[in-house]
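The data are quoted verbatim here:
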Amino acid sequence: MTVKACGAHSADQPLVAMTIDRRAPGPQDVQIEIAYCGVCHSDLHTVRSEWPGTLYPCVPGHEIVGTVSAVGNDVAGFKVGDVVGVGCLVGSCGQCSACGDGLEQYCERGMVGTYNGPTNDAPGHTLGGYSQRIVVDQGFVLHIRHPQQQLAAVAPLLCAGITTYSPLRHWNVGPGKKVGIVGIGGLGHMGIKLARAMGAQVVAFTTTESKRDEAHRLGADAVVVSRDAGQMKAQQGSFDFILDTVAAPHVLDAFTALLKRDGTLCLVGAPATPHPSPSVMGLIFGRKAIAGSLIGGIAETQEMLDFCAEHGIVADIEMIRAQDIDAAYERMLHSDVKYRFVIDCATM
């Protein structure tokens, strides 16, 4: 069946309205009428071929919230009318050790991305949530339990939310832990909210004094301007965990110096060029670690959504029409959004 979508035919062309095909639901499939789709910086990178391997036509979007309109005969746990979500992946091998551990994002044969991933459906690669409808295997569909009025702001949880929740959970962030969040943007603002809800002492790091009040509003207990050497020195050796959300190269030594013995600096921002090489001595003398984390598995993403529903956590968003996506991309490049754009898919 054909549905309306918004996508690009090449890296140097704007996103345009297009018609795409969606498969009829198979026995294991859930068909979803998309209400809202968040706009992630990964969408921009992929559409403009700033990351290698983009396949065209490219329909981005992996922060999807909608309503079930049909289910396959073998589907259990979802029914027509359910409010559901789809995040960054729609398939994995299901057989490797990562999949067996519920970590489908680390599938050893390669996860299937919600867009630009391999599929038997035309045109041979997955097409994402900038569209009216999507059909997804039930194993990659998530229940949304937030109230109706929050659904648009739930959409970014499917990427920004789980990207920050997963490392916070993995490194046991909670009461008695001092946690730093570097960067106050689409990822960082979620990291502050989540770490605060987990009961940690939360310190936000920003390059500009002007974001101090905003960081406190989001839930930070304290704010440090990272360009101020005095403020940084005052925090030295005091953090159990620091989550670095910045997607631009920067000196990591400034943050590893703030870790306690056995502390971890976890990177979730993906810069286009490498960070400067960190000082090994700074890690050795303190048994400190620099780590990375990629989204989360399906079970953990459901856990995150339920945690956010319980604590009333959603993203700070600005709603846009489908026709305004290119303008939104340009604003994203200038960090001109607080903190995530969300497409009203009724405007397709």
